[in-house]
């Protein structure tokens, strides 16, 4: 088995996505914890050598160093011998990838909103929270339509990598005082995600939802 080393900060949602996918794929990962806040260790010279972008997560193996969360998730899903999180159907794979990009790029505002809310990072809190709420509404509308079709997850009937990538933004949005009662379809979906074998939580996500 390839040795996987994750440079990690426990309260970072992108790092959590990596830990979550690794756990659901039953892949052992060595954690090297980084003082991301308040120490900003990720922008120290040794870490800028690993990732000139100055951010986490970073995944190191003997063969490759990965710096983009989405690429790390895909790499881990491919390492899983059972390929549990990767659809074989072409349309479902395309939908999974579409939502994976949504989680990686569009939903990054949810990370910003949470950082402003709980870590006093400078920024326009009300604007980023409003943007996060609007993105969650897009997710809610999609899962409402999926439920009508009898499909319990974002890309189809079975959980995929996209669901695990999307989950933290919704689960952690309470840190921004976003009321989950406004998103009943996402609440049902989140319960399904939590029932996935290997599911783990992070600080800020209670054991109940």
Explain what the structure shows.
The protein has 209 residues and is α+β, with helices and mostly antiparallel strands. It has helices at residues 13-24, 45-50, 69-79, 90-106, 108-119, 125-148, 161-171, 184-194, and strands at residues 5-8, 30-33, 58-60, 65-66. The chain has a 4-stranded mixed beta sheet. Strand 3 (58-60) and strand 4 (65-66) form a beta hairpin. The longest helix is centred in the middle third of the chain and has 24 residues, at 125-148. The mean pLDDT is 94.
Mean pLDDT: 94
Strand order of the largest sheet: 2-1-3-4
How would a textbook summarize the main sheet?
4 strands, mixed
According to DSSP, the number of beta strands is 4
Radius of gyration: 17 Å
SSE string: EHEHEEHHHHHH
Report the structural category. alpha+beta
Shape: globular
Name the quaternary structure: single chain
Percent of sequence in beta strands: 5-15%
First-to-last CA distance? 34 Å
Low-confidence stretches are: none
Q: Helical percent range?
A: 40-55%
Number of helical stretches of at least 4 residues: 8
Write the layout of secondary structure elements.
Blueprint (H helix, E strand, L loop, with lengths): L4 E4 L4 H12 L5 E4 L11 H6 L7 E3 L4 E2 L2 H11 L10 H17 L1 H12 L5 H24 L12 H11 L12 H11 L15
Parallel strand pairs: 1-2
Antiparallel strand pairs: 1-3, 3-4
Helix pairs in contact: 1-3, 1-7, 4-7, 5-6, 6-8
